[in-house]
Amino acid sequence: DSGVTQTPKHLITATGQRVTLRCSPRSGDLSVYWYQQSLDQGLQFLIQYYNGEERAKGNILERFSAQQFPDLHSELNLSSLELGDSALYFCASGGSSWDNEQFFGPGTRLTVL
Amino acid sequence: GQNIDQPTEMTATEGAIVQINCTYQTSGFNGLFWYQQHAGEAPTFLSYNVLDGLEEKGRFSSFLSRSKGYSYLLLKELQMKDSASYLCAGHRDDKIIFGKGTRLHILP
């Protein structure tokens, strides 16, 4: 158990809908990272938040957004969902620096029908 | 992955040593990650190399050559539980770019 929690574990929805994925980092970790993993694209870095502020941005679509709240939990919002958004979404937490170990949550499996 | 290359699959024998190579584009490069991912599970951080040279952590070691854009992950005394995918990822311009991963099969 990494200490990072993600909810829900599974999510099934339809094209055009909007969903919110939630992540609670390990106690003491100020950074939250979001990743998407699909069979064809592999693992992709989406975005990083540090202590409530966006710090780094990867291959995140404009239809996707994220935020980190004062209690440090984070939410990833996915809107206007397409079939290709079906994937595993991982959250990881870590310290202030990139060379700090990142601890991954169990992931949320999103299926868009 | 974008400009991160690693072999798709490798096979090795229990108790042996295996080296998984990774090459990357050096422009804007900050450091290199290695992750382990068992099927159906989340990735696990193995290492992050910034400086040239070898870093050892128990049975696993990671090597980096910044000038050559080359890294490898060395696994010693292989165990069946080491059967997994190993992901190389470059840290560049505050982004992480992953390779497709190397699926390692361990034979008894």
Number of helices of chain A: 0
| Model regions low in confidence, pLDDT < 50 over at least 5 residues of chain A | none
Largest β sheet strand count, sense and barrel closure of chain B: 6 strands, mixed
Q: Report how far apart the termini of chain B are.
A: 31 Å
- Please compute the radius of gyration of chain A using only Cα atoms: 13 Å
Question: What oligomerization state is this entry in?
Answer: heterodimer
* Amino- and carboxy-terminal Cα gap of chain A: 31 Å
- Please indicate the percent range of residues of chain B in DSSP E strands (runs of 2 or more): over 45%
| Shape summary of chain B | globular
Mean pLDDT of chain B: 93
Low-confidence stretches of chain B: none
Strand content of chain A: over 45%
Specify the structural class of chain B.
mainly beta
Query: If you average the pLDDT of chain A, what whole number results?
Result: 94
Description:
Chain A is mainly beta and 113 residues long. Chain A is 0% helix and 53% strand. Chain A contains no helices and 11 strands. Chain A has strands spanning 5-7, 10-13, 19-24, 31-38, 42-50, 53-57, 64-68, 74-78, 87-94, 103-104, 108-112. In chain A, strands 2, 4, 5, 6, 9, 10 and 11 form a 7-stranded mixed β-sheet that branches. In chain A, strand 4 and strand 5 form a beta hairpin. The relative contact order of chain A is 0.34. The model of chain A has no long low-confidence stretch (mean pLDDT 94). Chain B is an all-beta fold and 108 residues long. Helices cover 0% and strands 60% of the residues of chain B. Chain B is built from no helices and 11 strands. In chain B, strands 2, 4, 5, 9, 10 and 11 form a 6-stranded mixed β-sheet that branches. A 5-stranded antiparallel β-sheet of chain B has the order 1-3-8-7-6, with no helix packed on it. The mean pLDDT of chain B is 93. At the A-B interface, strand 5, strand 6 and strand 10 of A face strand 5, strand 9 and strand 10 of B.
